[in-house]
Specification:
The protein is 64% helix and 0% strand. With 160 residues, the protein is mainly α.
Length: 160
């Protein structure tokens, strides 16, 4: 066991080492979080290469995958959903049993729709007031981000 005398003699060194470990933990966590949130990380998996390629060609190429495919209402919900979907992805990537054309889950569709409404709130309010419909963006706009063909990219909706 460490003696009190040892602690007194080396208190400053121990505090510096503890502070350095704390900094590494904080910046390491922030760095890992940034990497795991990046489109490059999402596209790294074999099963997501085609989705990543279509995203790069689409109108949403300036938006990270997690901005559409994970909940963004609060950080806790985002992190829990990221952990859940991440574990599923790691499981299927390890088993190499993803289908050729990945289908988004019902929960995934809800995340995407909620994020469409969040980012395009002003447009959605105007459109849905005139149509009198529920706010289901992907009912009509499912091909915007990734396109119909696996490698074509998203549908171009820009007005020229």
């Amino acid at each position: 066991m460490i003696s009190k005398d040892y602690l007194n003699r080396h208190a400053l060194k121990l505090m510096v080492v503890g502070f350095a470990i704390g900094l590494l933990a904080v910046f390491g966590t922030v760095g890992a979080y940034s990497v795991f949130e990046s489109p490059e990380f999402c596209g790294y998996c074999h099963a997501m290469k085609a989705e990543h390629a279509t995203w790069e060609k689409g109108l949403h190429r300036n938006v990270d995958c997690v901005e559409c495919h994970l909940p963004n209402d609060n950080l806790a919900h985002h992190l829990v959903a990221k952990a859940e979907t991440g574990m599923v992805d790691v499981y299927h990537e390890t088993k190499r049993d993803y289908p050729a054309n990945i289908e988004i889950t019902e929960q995934g569709k809800q995340y995407v729709n909620d994020n469409c409404l969040r980012c395009h709130e002003e447009t959605n309010d105007k459109v849905h007031q005139s149509l009198g419909e529920t706010k289901n963006c992907i009912k009509c706009h499912q091909d915007v981000a990734h396109g119909q063909d696996h490698l074509e990219g998203g549908t171009n909706l820009e007005v020229k």
